[in-house]
Here is the input.
Amino acid sequence: EIVLTQSPATLSLSPGERATLSCRASQSLNTFLAWYQHKPGQAPRLLIYDASTRASDTPARFSGSGSGTDFTLTISSLEPEDFAVYYCQQRNNWQFTFGPGTTVDIK
Amino acid sequence: QVQLVQSGTEVKKPGSSAKVSCKTSGDTFSSHGISWVRQAPGQGLEWMGGIIPVFGITNHTQRFHGRVTISADKSTTTAYLELTGLRSEDTAVYYCAGVKLLCTGGSCFSVYDYFDSWGQGTLVIVSS
Here is the structure.
């Protein structure tokens, strides 16, 4: 089973600041990694797939990068609605796994 | 646009079973597989298993082996998650999520690697 680890666990930032979130896989994923945003009381929302492709309604301030085992989600300038939990996710052999999540909260 | 609408909150006794439904829109079953993901209080997202109606394939994580049944009714385009032997640790919000089929030349042979649609979530509370 491929294990995903995310760092940091919590990121405390102010609106307007840049957020950099990391996801590391226990085996190479090529570029088959997705990122989701999850807010309390809502369903998760797909932000990025294939490591760097924004979903249709993802704002341009979100960008993804990386390949192999190391991936990054960057939010260039935090908006108030961006404070949430972010998960990375992969699929391997018909098994999906999520990372433990990074909470981006207001400093 | 795929729409997934889930059944409502359930309150169950320990040892009983819960069955959550996920009604899909239009021809979702011909274009998507459906997975089930849960989030326990204070915890992260956990994939439980899924079904690909077009392929007739189901799978689930070993963690739920023997307790989970994932099924789909093609006539109503509704997917189901049944979890038996409920314990307090199963208290969670359960989401269904759609994963698009990967097709070429009119034949589908796999799925993409990400969930492009989600149900609104169903809270299952297990309490005596």
